Amino acid sequence: MHLQIRIPESETAAAAVARILARLAPAFHTEEEGEGLVSIATFPDLPEYLDPAVRLIAEVIHLPHARITINARPVANLTKFWSALLCYRDSLLEPDPKAYCARLSARLSSLSGCPDRTCASHCQFICTRCLGVVRETGAPPASTQLQRIALQAEVEWCPNLTLPPVKA
Questions:
Q1: Residue 55's pLDDT band (boundaries 50, 70, 90)?
Q2: Helix crossing, 50-60 with 78-91: angle to 10°?
Q3: Which residues on neighbouring strands pair with residue 135, listed in sequence order?
Q4: Can you list the alpha helix ranges (DSSP code H) found in 41-157?
Q5: From CA 89, how far away is CA 147, in angstroms rounded?
Q6: Residue 28 neighbours by CB under 8 Å, 6+ apart
């Protein structure tokens, strides 16, 4: 997983801590962008540098012009992404990360009244949204809809995520 975080220098005081943390990334540089400089922290192997990345994202969430990409895809919602990243980090502390995810989603599915106990995703960030999958004739395949939901939930990058393959 490749993570890149861009912090505009124009964010002065609010970005000072973020710029310090950005220097802890395995790759860091600044470049000109528009009328100012931007600090760029790159984590080419995210699992190896997960803790510094989580700390940095916690700081940039509050910076309105900070941008993050995961595997070259722009992250639309930094807060959702950070929450998913925390969950992924927590899963790595478990002997079976996928079982950890299944436990969290099972807890939510029982609370949401999920009619089908066989979850299609085993991800707490997709769980309740799964109920919105349209299964009528003419609707996109459920696998395509679940991929879209995973993207909206900012979890499609997670190595623990298991979704049915998208049908062509």
A1: very high
A2: 160
A3: none
A4: 50-60, 78-91, 97-112, 142-152
A5: 22
A6: 22, 39, 40, 41, 42
> Are the C-beta atoms of 72 and 100 separated by less than 8 Å?
no
CA pair distance 64, 37, nearest whole angstrom: 16
Task: Kindly report whether the global pTM for this prediction surpasses the value 0.90.
Answer: no
Task: Tell me what the mean pLDDT of segment 46-73 comes to.
Answer: 93
Count of beta carbons in the 10 Å neighbourhood of residue 165: 8
Give the pLDDT of residue 111: 61
Q: Distance (Å, rounded) from C-alpha 130 to C-alpha 98?
A: 18
Structure tokens belonging to residue 97: 């990360």
Question: How many Å apart are CA 57 and CA 75, to the nearest integer?
Answer: 12
- Give how far the C-alpha of residue 134 lies from the chain's centroid of Cα atoms, to the nearest Å: 24
